[in-house]
């Protein structure tokens, strides 16, 4: 898995590189010290995963994430961007998720958590730290008046159930087992959910579900 590190602190980038390059299946292929540089490096190297600091010079990680993903459109080769942050309940993190980051990772995470997170998002069939993502999204969604989702009426009963299970962070295999269907069926339902909600990925679909009131905190 090819990784790009974007952080304005050189020591942070060096520490991350040492941890990731020690793994046989992971390789850091590029680094960036500013948001603008991150956009350029990612577009040039086309990595699988980007670890993106949210507060950087020139443009922040939110704008960098938006610009990177806009250049890929809906291509499946678009990199998976993970926000690296000091505080989990941060408006910057929420905004980054809304523009396309797939999850966030705390800077105090252990090396084992870092490596596991990179592998998980590269596999892309589950949310990264689902409980933390749900808490963050639900907390911010409460501050917005729900917008009745037109797409909710277009979901089949099975698709709606898949979306609820996606929000719990279940993988396709876990959803299939819980619903008594095959993995291929779940994969088809997930694709339909993403299409109907207009979401790029699972994280975006969960955000849409909470912001619209389709899902509610604590439900």
From TrEMBL:
The keyword Nucleotide-binding does not apply. InterPro entries: CheY-like_superfamily (IPR011006), NreC/VraR/RcsB-like_REC (IPR058245), Sig_transdc_resp-reg_receiver (IPR001789), Tscrpt_reg_LuxR_C (IPR000792), WalR-like (IPR039420). The lineage of its organism: Bacteria, Bacillati, Actinomycetota, Actinomycetes, Kitasatosporales. This is Response regulator transcription factor. It comes from the Bacteria. The modification 4-aspartylphosphate is found at residue 53. Pfam families: GerE, Response_reg. Residues 148-213 form the HTH luxR-type domain. PANTHER family: TRANSCRIPTIONAL REGULATORY PROTEIN NARL-RELATED, TWO-COMPONENT RESPONSE REGULATOR. Residues 2-122 form the Response regulatory domain. Keywords: DNA-binding, Phosphoprotein, Transcription, Transcription regulation. It comes from Streptomyces roseicoloratus. The keyword Ribosomal protein does not apply.
């Amino acid at each position: 898995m090819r990784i790009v590190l974007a952080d304005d602190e050189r020591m942070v980038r060096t520490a991350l590189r040492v941890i990731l390059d020690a793994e046989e299946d992971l390789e850091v292929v590029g680094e960036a010290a500013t948001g603008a540089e991150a956009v350029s490096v990612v577009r040039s190297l086309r990595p699988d995963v980007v670890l993106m600091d949210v507060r950087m010079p020139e443009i922040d990680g939110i704008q960098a994430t938006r610009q990177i993903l806009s250049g890929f459109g809906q291509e499946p080769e678009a990199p998976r961007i993970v926000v690296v942050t000091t505080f989990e309940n941060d408006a910057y993190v929420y905004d980054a998720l809304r523009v396309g980051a797939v999850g966030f990772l705390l800077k105090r995470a252990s090396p084992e958590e870092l490596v596991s997170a990179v592998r998980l998002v590269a596999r892309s069939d589950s949310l990264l730290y689902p409980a933390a993502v749900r808490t963050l999204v639900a907390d911010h969604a409460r501050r917005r008046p729900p917008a009745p989702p037109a797409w909710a009426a277009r979901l089949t009963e099975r698709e709606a159930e898949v979306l609820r299970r996606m929000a719990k962070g279940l993988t396709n295999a876990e959803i299939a087992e819980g619903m008594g269907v095959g993995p291929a069926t779940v994969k088809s339902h997930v694709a339909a959910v993403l299409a109907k909600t207009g979401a790029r990925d699972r994280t975006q679909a969960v955000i849409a579900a909470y912001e619209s009131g389709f899902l509610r905190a604590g439900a």
